[in-house]
């Protein structure tokens, strides 16, 4: 028997919906008086088998007497009951049913009990779902709002009611704009409309929000939303979840500001730049305006005094509006803060000052009352002043102001400002101290570099030396042009690893060593081998004497020797970039020289390469800072250099300027040395060369040839001296070597006599005794010439001597 009952509410998923559930009617004696078809399907009993019988006898298990009695007592006391009762189906199987019992009064029949049953697992799931739904609307701390398709509100939970400041029962029919200010409501409704139209949910989207009952307070809310639709796909509306995340957002914002401050404050070792960086970080995320005032000595890089009320210099100002600067003292203005001013109190007590309501602060306007009045008219309402203290020394103060943002400063803002100021103070003090050290290192570096490059008949020279940006420190780059014997010239460019005074001092020692080695006329690869040993020893000495100093671990060098007589250039490099060679027709090449290890690795060989250069060729030697600017790769740097050098007809100064413009930023981050040399050739008629046999007559033959050549050149006055020099040099070669002797005379600004032989024995001066028959030859040569020396070849040596010639 089906008994229609209308006293039970039936939701779409209600397991107790009478039309779909097993139901029965019991009279006041507990006899079954009604039995539905669903009850027959669930338990197997037909109506005839149960009607008129006591439910306890037919359905209930005697062992569950306690549960049944508790249910009966609840029904009698409250007129209804809900719970789970174990019963027996027609086959005797135990079945747990969720039961809902309610009293039903029928006219003339007294009280009957309607029992609606469903399998217990369905009931538990339904109750869970119902409890979750009830919790979301009654107890959830996260706001929940259900909107109709026209975005009017259907229902909100208590969290939204508290959020909007309106009782929950008044929300149905309202729109978001009725409790949120218009601009924010429009943004919210636009997002909800997109969810309705596209079906794509909105997930944890943070938005600023201002409520109508408190429009000056900015909140940040996290919004999620999804579209509602029934099983047929009909759109029912959109559900929105709202969470106030203002505190979390501001904490995250403060942390982001601290990270940004760490990255942006102190990027250079420049006092004014660091002060500007501090102001730029604070505005606009923390303050609407910021000013940084430093003690006068600090701005000059000097040690600050201990007088807290000393003159202050405005070093940086930053504002979100163009209206603020007219009421702020400009950068460079010097001021004295009166004792009652917040800045003076901050300096004297070395602690921050928070003035949340500036209008009620007694001393902030004492510096300039008229300007203070204009500041208030502008709307400035809150102030923070934080001292800049490093190493126990007060350097200045930073002042933060608000006027556009309505919220006053609070303690969290003060903590954040202190973090900014602490970092900036250390950076400013480092910059101040670095300035003094940098100036000393720069003076040392400049004293070690060549002041003037000597003119030389073999090459025309131009150069550039550009010191690095202050932040990078003094470097160890150097260059040199060193005259050698036989009109040859050495061109040198090098770079010591690292920066600072130690790098500059090492550079000076290496430059001195290069001069010494060049005077020995060693080939380029041998020069680099000796320099390699020297760097090794310098590093060992430095490590042993000063463990705290930054260690110089190596250097790079390019050493080239050009001979204008043969037009050949010998080059070797130690980990240094290859030179650029520009032919007279404008072709630019980078010779494939063996790279060689950097100096200081020790024990690895170097290799020299010889190039033949046409007259008028251009050599460009440089340090790696020229190509590797701003992380530029080598190929890109060489391409730029090739274009800058492609017109060799220009003057060398113009070429250097073109290279500088094409490759270098305004403030390079590494020292840069550039040395350009245009080659010259000695005319063939200015050189005479003879090969003489290793015989006793070689000296006489050499004298004859030399005198004849001098007569051809019109240098008869130099014949006697030259004849004596040639005789002594050839005689010395004959005595100590077994092969042929080569005599070469070169005429330029000097008259150069060279005698080459196959012996590697080094001649040396000595004082001959009165009774000695020999030993006076080189002594005479040294007395008769301006300078003389020996250079070693692969298969012998050359002794040379130079005589000055009268200027023509």
How many beta-strand runs? 31
Average the pLDDT over all residues and give the rounded result. Answer: 81
Category by helix and strand content: alpha+beta
The helical percent reads: 25-40%
Assembly state? single chain
Tally of DSSP helical segments: 20
Fraction of residues in β-strands: 25-35%
Biggest beta sheet attributes: 6 strands, antiparallel
Radius of gyration: 49 Å
Low-pLDDT regions = 1-12, 768-775
Distance between the termini: 142 Å
Rough shape? elongated
Provide an overview of this structure:
This protein has 808 residues and is α+β, with helices and mostly antiparallel strands. The chain is 33% helix and 28% strand. It contains 20 helices and 31 strands. Strands 13-12-11-16-15-14 form a 6-stranded antiparallel sheet, sandwiched between helices. α8 (246-264) runs antiparallel to α9 (271-282). The longest helix has 38 residues, at 411-448. It is elongated and about 165 Å long. The termini are far apart.
């Amino acid at each position: 028997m089906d008994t229609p009952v209308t006293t039970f509410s039936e939701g779409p998923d209600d397991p107790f919906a009478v039309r779909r559930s097993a139901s029965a009617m019991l009279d006041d004696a507990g006899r079954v008086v009604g039995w539905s078809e669903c009850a027959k399907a669930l338990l197997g009993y037909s109506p005839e088998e149960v009607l008129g019988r006591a439910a306890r006898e037919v359905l209930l298990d005697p062992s569950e007497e306690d549960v049944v009695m508790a249910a009966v007592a609840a029904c009698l006391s409250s007129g209804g009951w809900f719970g789970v009762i174990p019963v027996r189906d027609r086959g005797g199987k135990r079945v747990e049913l969720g039961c809902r019992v309610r009293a039903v009064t029928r006219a003339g029949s007294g009280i009957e009990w309607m029992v609606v049953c469903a399998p217990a697992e369905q009931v538990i799931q339904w109750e869970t779902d119902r409890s979750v739904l009830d919790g979301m609307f009654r107890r959830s701390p996260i706001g929940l709002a259900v909107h109709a398709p026209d975005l009017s509100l259907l229902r909100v939970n208590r969290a939204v009611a508290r959020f909007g400041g309106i009782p929950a029962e008044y929300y149905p029919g309202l729109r978001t704009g009725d409790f949120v200010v218009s601009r924010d409501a429009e943004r919210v409704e636009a997002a909800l409309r997109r969810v309705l139209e596209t079906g794509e949910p909105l997930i944890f989207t943070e938005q600023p929000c201002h409520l109508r009952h408190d429009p000056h307070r900015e909140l940040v809310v996290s919004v999620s939303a999804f579209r509602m639709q029934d099983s047929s796909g009909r759109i029912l509306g959109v559900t929105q979840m709202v969470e106030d995340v203002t505190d979390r957002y501001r904490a995250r914002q403060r942390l982001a500001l601290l990270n940004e401050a760490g990255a942006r404050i102190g990027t250079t070792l420049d006092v004014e730049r660091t002060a500007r960086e501090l102001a730029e970080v604070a505005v606009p995320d923390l303050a609407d305006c910021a000013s940084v005032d430093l003690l006068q000595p600090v701005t000059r890089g000097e040690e600050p005094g201990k007088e807290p009320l000393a003159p202050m210099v405005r070093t940086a100002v930053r504002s979100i509006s163009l209206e603020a600067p007219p009421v702020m003292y400009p950068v460079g203005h010097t001021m004295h803060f009166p004792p009652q001013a917040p800045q003076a109190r901050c300096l004297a007590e070395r602690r921050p000052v928070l003035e949340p309501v500036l209008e009620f602060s007694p001393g902030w306007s004492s510096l300039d009352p008229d300007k203070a009045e204009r500041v208030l008219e502008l709307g400035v309402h809150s102030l923070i002043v934080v001292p800049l203290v490093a190493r126990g020394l007060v350097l200045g103060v930073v002042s933060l102001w608000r006027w556009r943002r309505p919220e006053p400063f609070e303690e969290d803002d003060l903590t954040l400002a202190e973090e900014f100021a602490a970092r900036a103070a250390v950076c400013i003090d480092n910059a101040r101290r670095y300035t003094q050290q940098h100036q000393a290192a720069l003076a040392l570096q400049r004293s070690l570099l060549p002041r003037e490059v000597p003119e030389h008949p073999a090459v025309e020279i131009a150069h550039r030396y550009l010191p690095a940006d202050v932040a990078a420190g003094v470097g160890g780059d150097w260059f040199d042009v060193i005259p050698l014997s036989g009109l040859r010239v050495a061109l040198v460019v090098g770079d010591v690893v690292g920066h600072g005074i130690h790098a500059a001092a090492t550079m000076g020692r290496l430059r001195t060593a290069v001069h010494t080695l060049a005077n020995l006329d060693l080939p380029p690869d041998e020069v680099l081998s000796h320099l390699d040993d020297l760097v090794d020893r310098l590093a060992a000495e430095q490590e042993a004497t000063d463990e705290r100093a930054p260690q110089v671990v190596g250097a790079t060098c390019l050493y080239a020797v050009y001979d204008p007589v043969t037009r050949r250039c010998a080059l070797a490099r130690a980990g240094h970039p290859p030179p650029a060679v520009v032919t007279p027709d404008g072709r630019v090449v980078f010779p494939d020289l063996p790279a060689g290890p950097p100096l200081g690795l020790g024990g690895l060989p170097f290799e020299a390469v010889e190039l033949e250069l046409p007259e008028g060729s251009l050599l460009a030697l440089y340090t790696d800072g020229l190509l590797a600017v701003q992380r530029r790769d080598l190929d890109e740097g060489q391409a730029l250099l090739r274009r800058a050098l492609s017109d060799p007809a220009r003057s060398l100064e113009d070429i250097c300027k073109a290279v500088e413009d094409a490759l270098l930023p305004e403030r390079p981050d590494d020292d840069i040395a550039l040395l350009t040399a245009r080659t010259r050739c000695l005319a063939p008629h200015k050189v005479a060369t003879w090969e003489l046999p290793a015989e006793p007559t070689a000296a006489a033959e050499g004298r004859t040839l030399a005198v004849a050549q001098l007569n051809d050149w019109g240098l008869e006055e130099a014949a006697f001296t030259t004849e004596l020099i040639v005789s002594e040099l050839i005689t010395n070669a004959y005595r100590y070597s077994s092969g042929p002797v080569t005599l070469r005379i070169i005429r330029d600004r000097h008259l150069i006599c060279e005698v080459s032989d196959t012996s590697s024995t080094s001649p040396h001066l000595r004082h001959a005794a009165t009774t000695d028959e020999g030993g006076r030859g080189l002594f005479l040569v040294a007395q008769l010439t301006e300078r003389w020396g020996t250079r070693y070849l692969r298969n012998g040596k050359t002794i040379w001597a130079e005589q000055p010639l009268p200027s023509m």
